[in-house]
Every structure is written in C-alpha cells, then in structure tokens.
Amino acid sequence: MSQNDKIFENLEREIAGSSDIDESTKNKLLQNVLALKSQKLNIMITGATGAGKSSTINALFNTDIAKVGTGVDPETMDITRYELNNLVLWDSPGLGDGKEKDNRHARNIIAKLNELDSNGRPLIDLVLVVVDGSTRDLGTSYELINSVIIPNLGASPSNRILVGINQADNARKGRNTWDYDLNKPTPETEVFLKDKVRSVNARIKEATNVDVEPVFYAAGYKEGNEAQNPYNLSKLLYMIVNKVPKAKRAVLANDNISKKEEMWKDNDDIKNYNVEIKKSLMESIVDTASAGVDLGRNVGRIFGKTGEAIGGVIGGVAGAAVGLFKSLFGF
Ligand SMILES: Nc1nc2c(ncn2[C@@H]2O[C@H](COP(=O)(O)OP(=O)(O)OP(=O)(O)O)[C@@H](O)[C@H]2O)c(=O)[nH]1
Ligand SMILES: [Mg+2]
Predict the structure, then answer these.
(1) What is the pLDDT of residues 276-292, one digit of tens each?
(2) Ligand 2 center to residue 179 CA distance, Å?
(3) CATH architecture of 41-264
(4) Residue 321: CB partners within 8 Å, gap ≥ 6?
C-alpha cells in the first residue's frame, strides 16, 4: 500500500494537524474516523459453477486471490473467505452441482445469511449473485435466488441483493455478437442483453415480488497470452457502492478496488460510473467522519487530501478528480 492509499491514516493526520478546528471538534472527528476504520464490509458472491464468481472478485478488487477455473470441476466447493483491508468476501458455490452438494451449498448459504455480527445486525451486507449470461437455462439460478437467498434477506431483500449477469460477451452465439475492437456489445447483442435483464427481473419478481434490477457485464478473462478486459465492471461496482450501507462504503475506498485502469474503461456510458463511484465514496466518508460536527467551510480543508486520494481510486488520475471535489465541497 502506498502512502496515498492509507485513506484513514491520512485523514487522521489531516484532522490532528489542522489549525482550523478546536480540540473538542478534533477529538469528535478522530473518534468518528476510528469508528470508520473498525467497520467491516461483508459481501457474499454466489452463483452457479463457472458463472464467473472468482473472475468477478479478481476483476473488481485489488487482488488475484480467487482461483479461476480452467477445468470442468468446480473450483469453489465450500464457502471461501477472503479478507482485504476490512473488506470481507465470501465466495460461495451456488446450485447446479448435483442434489447432495446443492443441499449442502444451500444450507451453508442460508446459515451465513442468517449470521449476525457483534452488533446483532446481519453479517452479510450484500449478496452479489453472478448469473452465467451465456447459458439459456437459468433454472438453478432462479432457484438459488428465489428459494434460497431472497427468503433469507430479512424485511427489505432488495437492499441486500444484486444480480449480475456475467459473460455478456458470450451471451449470443454466432458471428458479430461482440465488438472486440471497442469491447462492447454489437447493437443486436445490446438489445438481447437488455431483454435478458428484463426477463430475469420479471422471473424473480413473479416468484418473490422483489425487484432486483439486474446488471449485465463481463468480468473478462486472461488465459495465457489471451486477455479480454471487463465490460460494465464500473456499472457493477457503482451498483455495489450504492447498495452497501452508506456508513460502510468507505471500506471500498480503503485500497480495495483494482487499480488497473483497463478494468474500468469500457462501460455502457449511460452514466459516468467512475465519477459517480468516487463521488459516492467521498460523500460517505465526509458524512460519516463528520457526523455530529458542523465543519462549515473547513470541510474542504480537512477532507481535501482524502478527496485527492479517492480521485486515484479505480485507476483514474488524481488531477481529473479536482473539479469533482470542488463541486462537492464548494471551494
Ligand atoms: N468470455 C468470458 N469468460 C469468462 C468471463 N467471466 C469468467 N469467464 C471464464 O469462465 C470460466 C469460469 O470462471 P470462474 O471465475 O472460475 O467461475 P466461478 O463461478 O468462480 O466457478 P467455480 O468456482 O468453479 O464455481 C473461466 O474460464 C473464466 O475465464 C467473461 O466475462 N467472459
Ligand atoms: Mg470460483
């Protein structure tokens, strides 16, 4: 981790060294940062064998920890826990491995979803279900979502589930299905994928009355010399950021998101997701760290450096974020 990435340590230094605020305000802010630092964000990633759970983890986050499958056997047999700077990932096999194993997987998932943290709140903040967009038969995915996950998400299930339809590049068979030069769907494939999103949403809504608003993307791949960058990975991260509790979003900014710029390049561009992600992360850090304190115009002085560091998150150039933070802080 470089100096610039230690977001919370930087923030503590800025607060402690500031000459613009009094001691009691400093103490309150430092207490808030301490609380921020001790937060853990727990995300479960589940889905059928080969859907791309490990590829998605490796693409999104600053790691290659999750083993990507190369053979026919499932790589993930039981729930695997990865921890990166306060971000805890639970890589969980979904259904589709045969009846006996499916029962075991379902039991494990249900137990994990019902686990409580030390504050008595559900341990798992968000479940990302990775659906293989290249298969026609999504029966086991629907069973996993409708019968195993959603009934175990408590009173507002839509807040804790995100459905990602992966392998968008393989969604349609035949020629001219993907624009490999621009790394985006051809117009026909785009229509197809939008329709898939609509139908997946409808199937889940019909069974559970929950609107999951799926997102299609491609985690990409790397095999020997061949590699394909992700598509809509920023959109997926944008959805993740907005689903996780606001007070915990800062965990994602703490040197957890992949720094490889090529991961974040190719998106549907309906929004500038990378800018929106930075804005959302920064807003949540400012709000949580300054809770109970009115900083007025000093907000910019205290959080400016942190803002620049966040500007560097997801591969962007820090300078490009300056305008963004000006607009956030109004200075
Ligand atoms: N073309 C393409 N291939 C992908 C994509 N995502 C994953 N793959 C490939 O799909 C295969 C399975 O990916 P994994 O990430 O291992 O899938 P998994 O869900 O973790 O699988 P298990 O751990 O075995 O359950 C690998 O060969 C990946 O390279 C994608 O977006 N596009
Ligand atoms: Mg895996």
Answers:
(1) 898 899 889 989 999 99
(2) 27
(3) 3-Layer(aba) Sandwich (3.40)
(4) 278, 307, 308, 310, 311, 312
